[in-house]
# Entry
Amino acid sequence: EADPFRWMTLLGHVRMDRQTVRLADRFSSDGDQSGGRAWTEISPSIGVSLRPVRGLTIWGNTARGWSVPSLTELRQPVSGTRFDLDPSRSNSREVGLRSELWRGTSVELVDYHALVTGEIARQTIGTTPYYRNISRTIHRGLEAGVGQALPYGFGVNGSLTVSDARFDGDP
# Structure
């Protein structure tokens, strides 16, 4: 984080994660289903926050992220555990503004967009759930929030999110 000017903050972040899943099958009468998988990712993000006037902040950021399959998603009811699911990866951006309208009352408005590759989706075959990676999904939306501070540290907040998520190539 750096403040090159009193009205500007620059943010930068790099994160490295490594997650490992290992399974030792102790009931091999139905075949040995032992196995495992390790994932390593580097997730950078950059952003800027501007304060052009007192009580108003305009900000934006872009980031890359990822999410590994959960143990539930790695389990297949019929064939046992599978380790061929890949993590979902996202490239996202947000822009927004935050303002204090009057003492104790604040509003926030945010526009976001994310392109997700390999998103893990559940589909059902008969009554059996099955998880797979989807090639690309696009997530877009707007978020609005309002808050009012009350005496003794209490407050009231409200928010509304309008989101549109679809497979890439949908109409």
